Prior knowledge:
Blueprint: H1 2-34, H2 38-53, H3 58-73, H4 77-95, H5 103-115, H6 119-132, H7 140-153, H8 157-172, H9 180-195, H10 199-214, H11 222-237, H12 241-258, H13 264-279, H14 283-300, H15 306-321, H16 325-331
Amino acid sequence: xxxxxxxxxxxxxxxxxAVPEAEALNNRGVNQFQGGRYREAEGSYTKAIAIWRExxxxxxxxxxxxxxxxxxxxxxxxxxxxxxxxxxxxQTSLFGKDSIQSVNVLNNLAQLYRAQGRLDDALRxxxxxVALTPEGHSDLVDRLVTLGSAYADLGQPDEALTLFGRAAAxxxxxxxxxxxxxxxxxxxMAQIHISQRRFAQAEPLVRRAIAIWESAAVPEQPNLxxxLNNLAQTLRFQxxxxxxxxxxxxSLQILERRLGADHPxxxxxxxxxxxxxxxxxxxxxATLLYQRALGVLERSLGPNHPFTAKVRGxxxxxYRAQGRRTEAANLLLPRKF
Length: 337
């Protein structure tokens, strides 16, 4: 009995020690993720989850949510959804359906569904996450942005701008230097104005967003690349081609370093430079960029994703401009993968 008691005490001590170890691993993963060190972050998150899995509970759900966010950021959408759904299942079992504890996972899952083109699912979940978040809560900024982005994707820019405006006002109310969260909202507002060809409204918003991101503790994050790309788009559409091209190239350099050349976000930004080349009559360069982007998008998002189809159509248009009509026609045949 003496030896058994000692063993039980040792086991209890090991269980207690495991909790801070898992928290330390998870926190390390957060820092690595924020610094763009995605492989290291995956290792830290996975180790933390393995420890928490022996105990279950809310900490395990939080770890799964973090790993899901990492997989979404790196384009592993199926793996991301699996982590989010397991986290949501755990939270539902602990706190009940549609609990306040589940709001962050619901919002993240909505963002994932947007990336996959599942816009009805994204809208449904983002509405729920906004409804469950108390008014004035700092996290409401992100949830309003997700909902606004879903409306933008569905072709409802006015609804999107109203939500972005609410988010920006809330982000501006936070004391201290402008937070990168505000930069994200400003950039999203600029994207709406760009899509509506309101470039005079878009340019100051995106320039302020870039200034906030460039002053952040961790420079050259993917968000900065998106802002640079949006500024390039704004300048290009106003005829300022000389200043637009280097911004496109800097944006792509950041994304390739941070996310890799096989990431769908890199491919999406690549198509903007391809559009620029085609518009300037540089169809050889446009063809190469469209082909490269299309390969990445078909592998990561699938052949039937709306953006994949759009890029395929753009490439076919360039082929036709080059007199390659058979290749253009074959490109638009139904895809079987």
